[in-house]
Design goal:
Elements (H helix, E strand, L loop, with lengths): L1 H19 L4 E8 L7 E9 L2 E6 L17 E6 L5 E9 L5 E9 L2 H10 L1 E3 L2 E3 L3 E7 L3 E6 L2 E7 L1 E7 L9 H10 L13 E2 L2 E6 L4 E10 L4 E5 L4 E2 L18 E2 L9 E2 L1 E10 L2 E8 L4 H6 L2 E2 L6 E2 L3 E6 L5 E8 L2 E9 L16 E2 L3 E3 L1
Parallel strand pairs: 1-9, 11-18, 14-17, 14-24, 21-27
Antiparallel strand pairs: 1-4, 2-3, 2-5, 5-6, 6-12, 7-8, 9-10, 10-11, 13-19, 15-16, 15-20, 20-21, 22-23, 24-25, 25-26, 26-28
Length: 367
């Protein structure tokens, strides 16, 4: 009888132990960096109680969606451990545009991470599992870590050496990098706190219907890139407020305590817009006015309803000459003109094919 009881208890203990070990997940270790901010030779090591459980190391490409968006996925395999700390080593820029080595580490909120993976998230009405831990590497040793689209921590590591005076000679896309950095100098504050998000969408129109949109590419202060194509844009009417509720498209991320919040998006600081007018193709980059977020956030009196309203859209309108473009803030019952510029003809390769490499506008007027 004793022997049977012992066998019974051992069986129960084994079953309970096995059941407990069934909480196995697969997650991926990824790296990201802000758009047009070069990162070289990155290495991120994930630890659990001092033991290495994952490593991610790859050179991130220059044309991805940027900060918070993983550019590589390396499976850690089926494990039931989550990281409680990480160590990073990478080459990146300082404020003098020198390439420097940054190195250090930080703690991760392992219980929060575990909770996210246990609960999952809802997208388009469907339950989804978290499956990726991304470490963002920015200039000045600024580091941020996300579980999929949820930010869990950010910290700073130390600069240990300067090894190149400029990124120009060591990257294929150096011209694009330097053009961007000329208009948007390195500012470490961009990565010390998360950028504010807005209920924001985009529209396009043209005077006398002379132009057709190709695409709009936006970059936020932190370096999150969004691509909006012709079939996704709100087709607005020239000079008439659109004002409808935003359809909210694009890439963004959330804070841990905003887990249930509807997605909102970052205000752009840099825009590239492509359009076609008759047989002419335009591809123009420009810098948005510095006070755009203040203007966008300012409430106004809707002349139709006599109630307070908010802007909720940025509208791009090509004038009847097919070359000039006006940018408006748009909301229920109201539009506000914020800038105007002349489009730049698209560049062509040696075979006459148009290249998606716009140059910055020179005839820019801010209102």
């Amino acid at each position: 009888m004793k022997l049977k009881l012992i066998i019974f208890f051992l069986t129960v203990i084994t079953l309970v132990s096995c059941k407990k070990r069934e909480v196995i997940t697969e997650w991926y270790a990824a790296i990201s960096r802000p758009v047009f901010h070069p990162i070289e030779g990155p290495k991120v090591v994930y630890f659990h109680r001092g033991k290495v459980i994952a490593i991610s190391e790859t050179l991130t490409d220059i044309g991805n969606f940027g900060w918070s968006y993983p550019t590589n996925n390396i499976s850690t395999g089926l494990i039931d451990l989550f990281p409680d700390s990480i160590a990073v080593n990478y080459g990146g820029l300082n404020e003098k545009l020198q390439m420097c080595t940054f190195e250090g580490g930080g703690k991760l909120p392992v219980e929060r991470i575990k909770k996210l993976f246990e609960v999952g998230y809802v997208f388009d009405g469907e339950k989804n599992k978290f499956n990726c831990i991304t470490t963002g590497l920015a200039p000045g040793g600024r580091v941020c870590v996300w579980v999929n689209h949820i930010e869990i921590t950010r910290f700073k590591v130390n600069q240990i050496e300067t090894y190149h005076e400029s990124p120009v000679m060591i990257f294929e896309d150096s011209t694009e990098i330097m053009n961007y950095l000329k208009h948007h100098p390195i500012n470490y504050k961009n990565w010390e706190h998360p950028d504010k998000r807005y209920s924001l969408d985009y529209g396009f129109c043209s005077e006398n219907s002379v132009a057709e949109l190709g695409a709009i590419y936006t970059i936020s202060k932190e370096g999150v890139r969004n691509a909006i194509f012709n079939q996704q844009i709100d087709i607005t009417k020239w000079g008439k407020p659109f004002g409808e509720k935003p359809d909210l498209l694009g890439s963004s991320y959330q804070q841990f305590n905003e887990y249930e919040k509807t997605h909102e998006f970052f205000m752009p600081v840099d825009v590239e817009i492509l359009w076609q007018s008759e047989n002419k193709h335009f591809d123009t980059k420009f810098t948005i006015s510095a006070d755009l977020s203040q203007k966008f956030s300012k409430r106004y009196l809707n002349p139709m309803t006599k109630k307070k309203s908010n802007y909720n859209r940025i509208v791009f309108g090509v004038e009847k000459d097919g070359e000039h473009c006006i940018v408006w803030l748009d909301g229920p019952g109201r539009q506000e003109k914020i800038m105007r510029f002349k489009g730049k003809p698209s560049l062509k390769d040696e075979r006459g094919k148009y290249l998606n490499r716009g140059s910055y506008a020179t005839e820019v007027e801010y209102y």
